[in-house]
Write a structure and sequence with these properties.
Protein name: Polymer-forming cytoskeletal protein
Radius of gyration: 19 Å
Structural class: mainly beta
Distance between the termini: 43 Å
Mean pLDDT: 91
Organism: Bifidobacterium myosotis
């Protein structure tokens, strides 16, 4: 950010009940709050907050962040880990390291956890990029909209890519995965898995493929291609 110093607001250390970011704002080290509302641009180190609500805002965190609940629409970029309870947002969430969420992740847009993503359930409409994914359920629906291209929001319609997926139930479109461990899995829209270990059932449409299949699952090719 190249704003002149007098154009940047600063939040001083300590606990704040509510912080509202409407312009370019920087947090000093040691800022904590209950509710953080962002409609402008926030530059921070570690972020510690119970609630983060995005209103077309942009959040940059340069260290590990602990945010219990994330809602709204906007952009989050964290140069570290994100520890949370729940996420329900539209836009893009990028973490250089890990995303660990004790409950659910629901995102319309882009979800990137370069090393590891873990949640009880993950429901994504858009694109997922991660080294490893763990959870009970993972659902990936392709995002079909020209709106994002018009507004320069690239990446939302790309193929999802992961190293290892370990879940009970998977339902995914346009997913490239090296190793899949699942009880049941549904692969659609040209998904490609190098090695799948499936214990109950694996279903594919005619555009999807699994190179190596292990486990005691019943393999069914009865899905219609998109």
């Amino acid at each position: 950010m190249n704003d002149p110093p007098d154009m940047v607001s600063y939040v001083h250390p300590g606990f704040h009940e509510t912080i509202t970011v409407e312009a370019h704002t920087r947090f000093a080290a040691g800022v904590r709050c209950h509710t953080l509302r962002v409609s402008g641009v926030l530059d921070a180190g570690a972020i510690s907050s119970e609630y983060l609500n995005l209103d077309n805002g942009i959040v940059h965190g340069s260290r590990n962040c602990h945010i219990r609940h994330i809602t709204g629409q906007g952009t989050i970029e964290i140069n570290g880990d994100l520890i949370c309870d729940s996420i329900d947002m539209t836009g893009s969430l990028r973490c250089r390291d890990n995303i660990r969420c004790s409950r659910s992740i629901v995102i319309n847009g882009l979800l990137v956890g370069k090393r590891h993503i873990e949640a009880e359930s993950i429901a994504l409409t858009g694109t997922l990029v991660s080294g490893d994914v763990n959870g009970r359920t993972l659902t990936i629906h392709t995002l079909h909209s020209a709106m994002f291209d018009r507004f320069g929001m690239d990446g939302y319609g790309e193929r999802s890519q992961t190293g290892t997926v370990t879940v009970a139930d998977l339902d995914a479109g346009r997913l490239d995965c090296k190793l899949l461990n699942a009880d049941t899995a549904v692969l659609r829209e040209g998904s490609f898995v190098e090695h799948a270990v499936c214990t109950t059932e694996l279903s594919l449409d005619t555009s999807s493929a699994v190179v190596l299949l292990n486990g005691g699952c019943h393999r069914a090719r009865h899905l219609k291609s998109a």
